């Protein structure tokens, strides 16, 4: 066989071998941003250069939770012992805003101190792989999952339990895990009650379901705000973004807005401020 005839055959063999070879190990650079989003398919850490957040000083009505979480996060960032944290409670009360604000506050004091890495609820099964990726970095990482919860017949919680503390490797020293949820035990009450009514050994069955939340050493509860606190939040936003409006008118419009929404919370307050700023022709960021 001539060289002219042999070359195409060798090229096809080489291409076939390339397809059979395992993909090259991806490098995950944690040095080109302070925040990232984990994508599992394909596997990547997407840099986020502008985090959607609220300044820590504008989070009113959750002062106690703010001080506890900030202190825990700062100890972790300095290499001291700290706990995984579960922020649970009513919708729109500032749980995820507090996590992002605490991260920004510490990085403002010491740039690059801490990386914020968000993992989506549906990607929790890939959490062991993400922990391995982050553990190879020298940078300390705040791993964050927003709106974490589990439904009936969802076995993902078992792998999360092992990863948080119970696995043979344990949680890497450069990683801390924060999660927010509307549910204190991360599962609907009827799911827990169903275990009580159907399981042969009810105590063991319920313990299996609720023990996941025990893996979080720090629990912080968030509750609907009172009217005075709601006004305090509104006025803080109005001052911060220089919205020129009479105080009594501001309160009256904010109260009407909250009544139409059927709730008072930090999220409702922010939505009102966006509407007000738009009507006043002001930019906010």
List the helices and strands and how they pair.
Blueprint (H helix, E strand, L loop, with lengths): L2 H18 L14 E6 L2 E5 L15 H15 L7 E5 L5 H15 L5 E5 L7 H9 L5 E5 L10 H11 L8 E7 L7 H10 L3 H13 L3 E5 L4 H14 L6 H15 L4 H15 L5
Parallel strand pairs: 1-4, 3-6, 3-7, 4-5, 5-6
Antiparallel strand pairs: 1-2
Please provide a written account of the structure.
With 285 residues, the chain is an alpha/beta fold. The protein is globular, with a radius of gyration of 24 Å. The chain has a 7-stranded mixed sheet. It has 2 domains: 35-222, Rossmann fold (3-Layer(aba) Sandwich); 227-280. It starts with a helix and ends in a 5-residue tail after the last helix. The protein is 47% helix and 13% strand.
The CATH superfamily name of the largest domain is P-loop containing nucleotide triphosphate hydrolases
User: What characteristic shape results from the CA principal axes?
Assistant: globular
So, CATH architecture of the largest domain?
3-Layer(aba) Sandwich
Percent range of helical residues: 40-55%
The pLDDT mean sits at: 84
Number of helices: 10
Radius of gyration: 24 Å
Kindly identify the CATH topology of the largest domain.
Rossmann fold
Taken as a percent bin, the fraction of beta residues is 5-15%
Cα(first) to Cα(last) distance is: 71 Å
| Number of separate strands | 7
CATH class of the largest domain: Alpha Beta
Contiguous runs where pLDDT drops below 50 for at least 5 residues = none
Number of domains: 2
The strand line-up of the biggest sheet is 2-1-4-5-6-3-7
Q: Main beta sheet: strand number and arrangement?
A: 7 strands, mixed
What kind of oligomer do you see? single chain
**What is the helix/strand order?**
HEEHEHEHEHEHHEHHH
Q: What structural category do the secondary elements indicate?
A: alpha/beta
């Amino acid at each position: 066989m001539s060289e002219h005839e042999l070359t195409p055959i060798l090229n096809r063999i080489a291409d076939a071998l390339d397809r059979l070879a395992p993909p090259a190990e991806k490098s995950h650079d944690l040095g080109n941003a302070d925040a990232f989003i984990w994508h599992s398919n394909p596997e990547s850490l997407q840099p986020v250069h502008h985090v959607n957040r609220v300044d820590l000083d504008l989070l009113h009505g959750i002062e106690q939770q703010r001080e506890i979480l900030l202190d825990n996060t700062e100890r972790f960032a300095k290499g001291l012992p700290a706990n995984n944290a579960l922020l649970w409670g009513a919708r729109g009360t500032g749980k995820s805003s507090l996590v992002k604000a605490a991260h920004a506050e510490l990085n403002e004091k010491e740039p690059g101190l801490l990386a914020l890495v968000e993992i989506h609820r549906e990607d929790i099964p890939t959490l062991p792989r993400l922990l391995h990726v982050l553990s190879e970095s020298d940078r300390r990482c705040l791993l964050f999952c927003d709106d974490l919860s589990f439904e009936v017949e969802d076995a993902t919680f078992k792998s999360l339990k092992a990863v948080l503390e119970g696995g043979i490797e344990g949680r890497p020293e450069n990683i801390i895990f924060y999660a927010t949820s509307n549910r204190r035990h991360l599962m609907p009450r009827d799911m827990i009650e169903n275990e009580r009514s159907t399981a042969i050994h009810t105590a063991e069955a319920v313990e299996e379901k609720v023990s996941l939340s025990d893996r979080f050493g720090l629990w912080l509860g968030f509750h609907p705000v009172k009217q005075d606190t709601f006004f305090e939040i509104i006025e803080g936003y109005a001052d911060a973004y220089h919205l020129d409006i009479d105080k009594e008118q501001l309160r009256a419009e904010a109260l009407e807005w909250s009544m139409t929404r059927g709730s008072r919370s930090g999220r409702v307050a922010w939505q009102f401020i966006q509407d007000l700023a738009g009507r006043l022709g002001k930019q906010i960021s």
